[in-house]
Batch of 3 targets.
Target 1
Amino acid sequence: MKSILAGLALLLLCACAQLPPPVSGRVILLPGPDGRSSGELHVRDAAAADAPWQLLLDPYAQIERVGGVLRRSTSTAQSVQQRYGGLLARQPMRPRRYIVNFATGSTQLTPETAPLLEQVREALAEQPAGEVIVIGHTDRVGSMEANDKLSVARADAVRELLVAKGVPREQISVAGRGEREPLVRTADEVPEARNRRVEIKLR
Amino acid sequence: MALRTLLFAVLFGITAPALAADAAGVVKRLQGTVTLERDGKTLPVALRTEVQVGDRIVTGVDGLVGITLADDTLLTAGQNSQLLINDFKFNTTTNEGSLLAMLVRGTLHVVTGLIAKNSPLQVEFRTPTLVLGVRGTEFIVDAGDGATP
């Protein structure tokens, strides 16, 4: 009986000794929405300012700090889902962008892009705390000053259309960038339909 | 010159700001108990609560919170977490700035935004044991219970 107990105690001791030391930090690089690498992370031990940075580049590349030492490994989609699924499920929405276009020199939406505003309204209505950022642009026909004003007027026009659809005004912010941020680069005084636009960011 | 500056402010300053001038971000998703510590006070957190530099966001055992920063960075903190926004600067015209946040305890999911794209060396996350330099990416960081064995 004594020897059995001693054996059990020994087994327990072995089991304890084999318990891995605690993980005191973990970083996992995730793939982007397209499943490919989303960028790069440089990781180092906070306790050692002169320690070399370790680079994480591939999806699910992982660094764990175990027993005071950084260890590299690779996690998996399943493991991340199991351990961090709740976290992943409660991310804020990724910003969505919509572009509407305008007739030359006017705040009149093109008939092709006007229906996009309904999509913006619908997408916003699904968000518990959504907001809309409306930024107006022009092409390079006309003076800088006139285009600064026109870009704000276009953004204002989009805001009023959204408000008319029932979007709360306080959820919309508006700015104009004039001809300074063209989508397509052109020489001055060249009309370019793609630059006569308002960018709507929903987030 | 003054007139030009004023004109610039009028044209480029976002009218009817969704964010107050000193807000770094806004609470977009919320579950369970989440509070915010600011200037030694504990404040309740609701949807659309604004988060400022210096704030400590604290989630309870049932708490989760999703925050969108002004540069589109998405931060989601899991249960039993503490997240400190040490620094956040963002220029809405140039899309440049800096971000430093400390996960004191718990778990955090990050999708970086415009700052990481335009000022890649200016985005850093820390835990008690790790330092992360970020170049435009998505990741999870786990600080466990905040101990540093």
Note: The first strand of chain B starts at residue 23 and ends at 31.
Target 2
Amino acid sequence: MSISNLPYRLSLGPLQFHWPKQVMLDFYRDIESTNVDIVYLGETVCSKRREFGYGDWMDVAERLLDSGKEVVLSTLALVEARSELGYMKRQCDNEQFMVEANDMSAVRMLGGDTAFVGGATLNIQNQDSLKVLIDQGLVRWVAPHEMSASVMTAVAANSADEIECEVFGWGRMPMAYSARCYTTRALDIPKDQCKNCCIQYENGLMLSTRDDEEFLVINGIQTMSAKTTCLAREFQSGEHGADILRINPQALGTNSIIELLDQLRNKSVNATAVTDEMAKFAPDGLCNGYWHGAPGMDYCDDAAIL
Amino acid sequence: MDLVCPAGNLPSLKAAVDNGANSVYLGFRDETNARHFAGLNFKDQQIETGVRYAHERGVQVFVAINTYPQPDNITQWQRAVDRAAELGVDALILADLGIMEYARSNWPDLRLHLSVQGSATTSDAIDFYAEKFDIRRAVLPRVLSVRQVAALIEKCETPVEVFGFGSLCVMVEGRCYLSSYVTGQGPNTFGACSPAQFVRWTETESNLETRVNDVLIDRFGPDEHAGYPTICKGRFQVNGETGYAIEAPTSLNVLPILPELMRIGVAAIKIEGRQRSPAYVAQVTSVFRQAIDACKQNPDDFIANDAWLARLQSLSEGSQTTLGAYNRGWQ
């Protein structure tokens, strides 16, 4: 699928947080009228989050499809239980939507002859690994979040033209997954009796250093960056070879972020103005270090290196 | 059930072999392995000596090439595979798909293991590697409960190795960015977590502070033991409370559940700690050798004896041990 005259497409990544059902329904209803091109749907963090059943996801998927979006079903990143594999199998066997495989379990289930998206957690760090997965059916890969622009460009340059590359460009960055739930740990309740307590933290739970620096965000079994990744300046043009820029959902401002990045790719606004606007939706600051080969938490705004 | 022990250098390798390891694992002196620390690991010549020493005593040698190469350095990882193969080691422990493909096509007879860095937590994921690259063993990330390990083994034809003792990664290995987020260098591509050159210890009037690239990881009073500032083992504030929000400094120890691991069909127990001293390796290997032998002889009456536990405790981080994710309650 190609969209004329635009340097890249915009995608909405899978929802990382646990939101009530009605909030999710309203959120995705609002997405229908945005200019985002691709929407990734599904629970990728914790299988105990069941506000949406499989049928709810499929209903939303249908509506988004009707509103002109490409829809991809995302699978769980850390898979531990047999029931989780069962759910994943259902996703992989669906005949309507492409699947984003976030674990090798899903890659295997897809069987080798189904086109799929390779998620960031597959750790595709070089062209040889990418090639193995292309032979397995991969048509699009999401660069690991810790990958720099120069490495991404080198990997993409060594793969066939029709293989698409997607880059995480906005949101608190998913950075680690664990068997342990840090939300229940913070609240001092057993994981098995969690009662979905993470639902009360719509953008995750802040973890600060002892000298009061906002450092990480706890999101159940996932750990995220407190800072928000922002690659607006870096995506003024399409020269870096990425085909898709990903925005992850957040409780407030997702539609504004989509609109701002859409204006940016249409060249109707400049990157500095867009970044200043976007920063208003990042309460704990911006980061883009990985993209520049620096620590992920850094923010590089030196015009010379962009 | 085999005992797989760490060797950060030749004296550690000998200590492991002499104290009853069935296999030892080691790495080259560069970022091709996940313990890329200054002064650690092997030159080719030392591997040759080590392989001879181990083989003469019936012990196998595995080489970990378990980090992820990037486009400009793939050949360095490929050469590591070639060197290990030429040195006559018994298996390679790999994580990267491209390197597995390379090893399989260029060294078809070489035995391959899937590293913990490959993040495979299901039989489907392991089967993928087995079908594609004929891996003969998979090392499991430290995220599954004993019941989940048992369910996996039941479904999976590939033998499984689990961690038995040592530093505890609480995040799924291969997918943790905490170190690279703070320093730019992490386990996946650089082979180290919270690398030493970013660590700073600062004495204030009443405290000792540990920082990684200026981020405060912990602050210790005069009576407290200050541990190495691994990011996930720091003390932080959440909801107004200060504490070990992720995990306290502690070591994994499976001794209390050894019979269970044996019963469910775990093929090998891995001891973490290539960065540890030969004396440490000798002691941990010796305790686990005795324990595994006792357990094999009489699994029903096996009790982790107090002397073993005391010795392991004294070798543990923060002098504490845990069953980690094996125990559902820990999660």
Note: Chain A touches chain B through 68 residues (CB under 8 Å).
Target 3
Amino acid sequence: MKSFRLLNPTTLDEAIALCADPKGGVTKLLAGGQDLLTEMKEHLAGPDRLVNLKSIPGLDAIEAGAVGLRIGALATLAKIERDAGVRANWTALSQAALSVASPQIRSCATIGGNLCQRPRCWYYRMEEAHCLKKGGTECFAYGGLNKYNAILGGGPSYIVHPSDLAPALVALDAEVTLRSAKGERKLPLEKFYVLPENGGVEKETVLADGEIVTAITAPAPVAGMRSTYSKFKERDSFDFALSAVAASIVIAGGKVTRARLCLGGVAPVPWRVPAAEALLVGRVLDAQAAREAAEAALKGAEPLAQNGFKVPLTKTLVERALLSLAG
Amino acid sequence: MSRQDAPKKKKIKVPKVVNGIESEVEIEVDDVPGGAWPDRASLRLLNHDLPRVDGPEKSSGRARYTHDVRAPGMVYARLLVSPLPHARVKKLDLDAARKVPGVVIAIALQEEPKWLGEPIAAVAAESVEAAEDGLRALAPQLEAMPWAVDHAGATRPDAPRVGKDGNLGKPETNGDEAKARAALKASAASITATYTVPIQHHSCLETHGVVVDYRGGDEATVYCSTQATTGFAEEAAKPLDLQASKIHGLNEHMGGGFGGKFGLGLEGQVACRLSKELKRPVHLMLTRRDEFLMGGNRSGSVQTIELGGSASGDLLGMVATSFKHGGLGRGSLAGQPYIYAVGDTYRAVRSVLMNLDSSRAMRAPGHPQASFAMESALDELAYALGVDLLEIRKRNVKNPEAWRNEAWKRQLDRAAQEIGWAAHPHKTKPGPATGTECIGIGFALGNWGGGGSKGCEVEVKIERDGSVSALCGTQDLGTGTRTYMAAITAEELGLPLAGVTARIGSSRLGNSVGSGGSVTTASLAPAVKDAASNARALMADHLSRVMNLPAAGFRFMPEGIVNDQAKSPTVMTWAKACATLPVEGLRANGVWVDSLQATGAPCVQAARVAVDPGTGRVRVLHMVCVQAVGLPLNRLALKSQIQGAMIQALGYATGEGRVIDPVLGLQMNANFEEYKLPHALEIPRMTTIIDDEDKRQAVVGVGEPPAIPGAGAIANAVANACGARVRELPITPDKVLMALGKVV
């Protein structure tokens, strides 16, 4: 690992100032460190300075109340998963947090870091493979070992978005709050991520240099809303998603009045499927509706040589997730 | 011979010290029954559950492994391994590495690495971090040379030549092909299928490595994580340019070996060279990635099996055409039809050379590969014939040693009972792929030798303060060596387990066999028994002189020592008896005794799985192993060992396998994230049954056999559940969905 300076600001403004310092060299934000330190050890990142956000008090609060949900970016996944308010009203998020890695990692990893983590594509993760994402000319996954790669939204890079929390939060209409020297902005989490074809090759988000994710917010659930996150791992104990689905549904008068469906592990970004959502609205959520929604969700999937299995797998997950919300 | 017969005399050698000079003298003692184990019913310690004596030390972190060794002035070394399977090193900046603060030495090792992970250079520094910075400063420029790292790449017409004589080894054949084909033709049904197993890694928690402590002069100490404590010091003599007897080899504890840790290794050679040059202790443990690339592996294989049988399920003909993937080595594969007997058989096996590290021995080398293919083929044929899966196995075990067949048959019945076969609906054809949880059952058989050999020299010492120790320069591969050494000695002397201390892991102790092929226990335990028996005889001899009573009358019991031939027998405590010893105490040696051990460790395993046809998810719910072990020394340790083997098979079946990108030549999963070992949630209910119908009064090693059948049993259970026949390990959801025809 390259040597670096560890800076411990005590206020957000101080952190922002440190990030904006033009003489600081390459500066990265450190939260739980679960991804960044791995990247540094693997020589995928070599910052000159780390700005430690953990030294700023108050960034890890969880407020789950009648007005909605607000989670500070430094809240750990363990804290989120255990929060009774989150579990009751934003169930998909609670389930997503619980599905991440291992208890040890969840006790360190933060929601901000989870949303900003880099992809797991094994070509990207190996220093020796000078792939498209690392400034090379080729996405090795495209013609290579692509079992774990994208079936939707891929090209020119075929990574899959690794976060479990992101699809759940998108399905819960969450917004992300960003702060920088220029001020604060708030945008739907869905808009936070960029497809490779829209410029998201070397980075995956719209986060600007020196900008800090400070909070995640989600509206209070309307009456009749229920949500779920279903993650399919190759190894239950500890794994990223082979495929995942987050769904939130509002049922009123026996019919679906609003639906949000977002897929994980199959596309370079959390993959919202509006066609499937539209298909559900106004219908009784029964086996037929769930099956049609699953078909619609995977429409347009373009598997690579080794990941065709993700299509039937994801259809099953969508169908079952929806039916689990029907009762 | 009845053990009640009056004891005869026998001559044994004992050490004698005169004027400080030690020599051996022969003395005559009563021939106590050292050549046979006591009846099982009379055993106090052996054949019971004994928590291992070094358990607290290991679980609390106090046990010192090679990795933990720290010596004054020690430096840390790291290897630069080739990231390409074949290359020429055009530039290596040794000077830049030497300039990195803390780096004390940087050396080049190889100009044309011919396998992925071959060490190119080494750096040693005052800290691990400085050594790693030194490695990066080497900034090697490599010119890629043509390579082959997979079957297709190594066997295509224009494949680069990996070996001097091409990449395909000469076929090793066995049997008459024409006859075998005729038998296949005459069969009521036959199947043809190709089974593929990937390269599996040993995945020892402690990586390979050594600490070489040479600080000038003519002596050195070498710590090594090794399966053969006796011998590696001798190997270090050459690179250290010292007399072998001046090198003290130490291996107090080791974190797994599984067959991959024999010899000093490349890393050991390098560490010796660095230490010799620096005259400083050198710590060189492989990183996890290096361990994957250069620490050895279980060879892969591709096996095409044609198998035919009669309507009633007798196997009539088999043709097996196989390829072994052992990197630059020849790999290993047990001969088909493996455990079963088939009327007419023909097999041809060839190795395929690739630019990868040579495979090494790994827990039953060549057997799990052969077992997975044969057990899968057997079930495929049983379904084609409509024969019960249990029945077809019983019909076709025809080992020349009849007792083995009897063992397999009773073990099959027991495994079937434990796994719930009687109530299972899919006995002659797979279940339908419907619903979310299809339940399947699979069976497979294992076989192994497990006998021992000469080579262990054990000493038992009794001190005047009553303490007793059993010593041998052996190692504990994880099987609980210390515990059974102490237990055997304590059993013999009538002492509690805590009354004996076992000392191992030093080349200065008596010689030991290496721990491979499940030979350790059957080689070592008889020698311990012999030494303990001799110690008992010497003690009796001593007491007879002190007490003026016949030596034959002494009995050693937990309450103390009593002489039945005394006029009024009284119990003398062990402490009191020892207090009568001369100041140097008492020492007895022991060697291997053939009659105390035996060969043959048949086993049966069964697996119950749940397959979700909608997702391809396989959950192994229950695994059963019924294992013949001869006389169980420590039932708890045996069960642990069997469970460990079953978990290794579970990993082989469901998650493990080296993945290499053939174009880039990189191993994609040289880490524990992508190399998917089973973790806590993957471990099924495990039923480990010691086959107590095996009444042999002899010790048998069972390190390997329980690692053999698990993968075949699981693969068969998956197919039995829902018809998803996956012929390539590991059985992951993508392959299950593919086998079910769900992937378009």
Note: The CA atoms of residues 505 and 545 of chain B lie 36 Å apart.
